[in-house]
Every structure is written in C-alpha cells, then in structure tokens.
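Incident log, support desk, overnight shift.

02:14 A customer reports that sequence design results differ from what the structure should imply. Their input is reproduced verbatim below. On-call engineer (initials T.W.) acknowledged and began investigating.
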C-alpha cells in the first residue's frame, strides 16, 4: 500500500470517528429564530424565515410566491462555546436547479469572527440524502472547535423555504444571540444575480459579500428571473423601511417592459422614500452573448433603452436622489457557471466593483 493511500485511509478513519463521536453525544437544540436573524426586510413575518408575508402582499404568481418565502440573504447571529454544531431543517419548497451548488440553494454557510474582528469562513454544508418529498433533515456542520466562546454568523439557504431551523450544540455549551454590528439598512431588489444563482455557498452572492466587505447591513428582496418592476412588487418595496435602496432591475425584463415600467416604478419609489438614495445598476454582460446572436440582440436592445431613459432621468430634478452605476462581474471569460450567471469569484468581482460608487453615494446622505 502506498504512503499516500495509507494516509488517506487514516484521515478518513479519523473523520469517521469524529462523526460517530458527535452523532452519539448529547446535543441541545435551539430554534434559530430565538437567536438574532439579520437581513430581513420585514421583522414580523409569521414564518420568521420568510422574506415577505404573502398573505399580506398579493399578486405574486406561484414561482414568485415561493421565491419570496426563500431565506436568501438571511443570516443567524449567535455566540457559543460549543465544539460541534449540527443543523436540523424542516423544509417547505426546495429548489432543484443545476447551476447552483446544493450547499448554496439548500445549505448553510458558517462564518466565525477571527482575532482581528473579521468574518472568517469556517464551514458549510447540507444533507447529502435529500430527495423531493423529504420534510426534515439533520447534518453535522463543524466537529472539533476549541470550546472557547466564538461569534458566529450562519447564512441560511439561498433558494429554499425553511419552516424550522434548529441549531444543535454540545449539551453543556452556551448558545445565545449575538448583537449585530452591521450598520444601517440597505434594501436590494434584483434578479437571480442578486439572489445568488451560480454560487457554491449561501454567503457568496454579491450582496452578502458587499455586506461583509463594508459592514453595511443588506436585506435582499431578490426574485430570480422575476425582477421586472411589477406593480405588486413595488407595493412591497414601498413598505420596506431602509436607509438606501439598490436595484438590479434591468437583468430580467426585455426592452419594451423596461420602457413601459421604469418611470411608474421610479415614481412609486420616489414617493414612498423621499430623500433616500435609489441606486440602479446596469445589467452585466452575459458571456453567452459572444456566440448567441439572439441573446446579444436582446440584451443590447434593453441596454440602449436604459441609457436613453436615464439621460433624461438624471437631468430631471424630480429624480435628484436617483443614480445609475455599472457593476462588473468578469475580468476574463472564465468567471461564469452557465454563460449567464457568474460563479462565486465573479460575484466577488461584482461586489468589489460597486463598493466605491455605492459608498460615495451613501456618504452624501450621511450613511457610512
């Protein structure tokens, strides 16, 4: 037997012992909503892991209804001195796409604050046994921490509906809410890009990376494929109380829809949030455009409409708090998952590309 093969067998044997030890040890379980949930636009939804109360807000079709019940952008803040963490989830709707890792669309992503006060990636995962129709799953997330007190942030699944999330820690460990240090409240409404389709972990969408990079709290109201400035979504956004608003509204609709809906949507936002910055983003370049003529023509048409309309919008004193910025998600042609969506690195580039222009705008409004 080779030395390498012997080492690997020993390594996996140790892991199995860890699994066995922690599986047999007694854990205590805490419902995540009893800790500190951040990233929610509305605090008092009947299901604490829903982003929108779909009983109150009407007009969504079946797909949209599912999307706003998904926990994209919601994270759990807590502190604990446990050595092991497990997660038990009771599911509602569960996504099943192919462009996004299961760890992202139905998994959890753990960050722990390091000695320098920075959020450090620690662990991520999901159950490997999920099949449609299953309602409850438990899986171990981390096994051998040092038993000292740690500050933790656990991102919830990006594209699935959670009915209950319980965090399991050692029976003799402390687990309690952690006060959020994220500042202000920035609402973001957008497409699958904003929701994080194509990511490999739930905390890797560009809004979540922007949040960790800047310390500004982001609340996500992304609706993959369905961000088209619908009047009923404007009703939701009109009721969201935030310090600023960022929009990725030009990725999903065609040119005709943008021309028809942009001004009514804009007027509604200005009326609902006077004096608040409304920051619109141009859509990014889809790499599949390189050889797909119809897609290239489709995207070019809506880009032209956005430029044409914003020439007038940015000169109009009624829209003095409206801005248009340009995100960038690629520096080469290797940062995409499927020709449409960036991978996690592509989203890192997006987050960094909007950081300076967004922070510059926010400073005008005392948001730092």
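02:41 Re-run completed on a clean worker. Output:
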């Amino acid at each position: 037997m080779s030395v390498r093969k012997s080492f690997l067998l020993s390594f996996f044997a140790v892991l199995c012992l860890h699994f066995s030890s922690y599986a047999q040890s007694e854990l205590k379980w805490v419902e995540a909503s009893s800790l500190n949930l951040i990233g929610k636009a509305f605090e008092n939804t009947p299901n604490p892991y829903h982003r929108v109360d779909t009983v109150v807000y009407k007009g969504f079709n079946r797909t949209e209804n599912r999307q706003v019940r998904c926990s994209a952008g919601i994270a759990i803040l807590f502190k604990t001195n446990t050595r092991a963490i497990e997660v038990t989830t009771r599911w509602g709707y569960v996504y099943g796409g192919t462009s996004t890792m299961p760890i992202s669309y139905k998994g959890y992503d753990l960050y722990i604050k390091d000695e320098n006060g920075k959020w450090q990636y620690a662990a991520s995962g999901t159950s490997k046994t999920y099949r449609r129709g299953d309602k409850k799953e438990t899986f171990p997330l981390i096994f051998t921490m040092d038993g000292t007190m740690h500050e933790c942030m656990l991102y919830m699944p990006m594209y699935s509906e959670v009915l209950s999330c319980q965090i399991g820690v050692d029976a003799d460990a402390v687990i309690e809410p952690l006060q959020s240090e994220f500042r202000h409240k920035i609402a973001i409404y957008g497409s699958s890009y904003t929701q994080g389709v194509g990511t490999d972990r739930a905390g890797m969408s560009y809004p979540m990376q922007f949040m960790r990079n800047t310390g500004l709290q982001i609340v996500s109201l992304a609706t993959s494929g369905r961000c088209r400035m619908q009047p009923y979504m404007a009703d939701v956004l009109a009721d969201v109380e935030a310090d600023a608003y960022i929009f990725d509204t030009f990725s999903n609709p065609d040119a005709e829809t943008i021309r028809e809906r942009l001004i009514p949507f804009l007027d509604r936002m200005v009326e609902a949030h006077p004096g608040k910055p409304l920051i619109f983003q141009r859509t990014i370049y889809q790499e599949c455009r390189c050889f797909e003529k119809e897609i290239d023509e489709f995207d070019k048409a809506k880009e032209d409409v956005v430029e044409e309309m914003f020439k007038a919008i940015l000169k109009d004193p009624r829209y003095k708090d409206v801005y248009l910025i340009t995100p960038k998600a690629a520096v080469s042609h290797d940062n995409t998952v499927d020709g449409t969506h960036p991978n996690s690195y592509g989203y890192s580039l997006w987050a960094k590309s909007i950081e300076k222009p967004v922070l510059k705008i926010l400073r005008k409004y005392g948001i730092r």
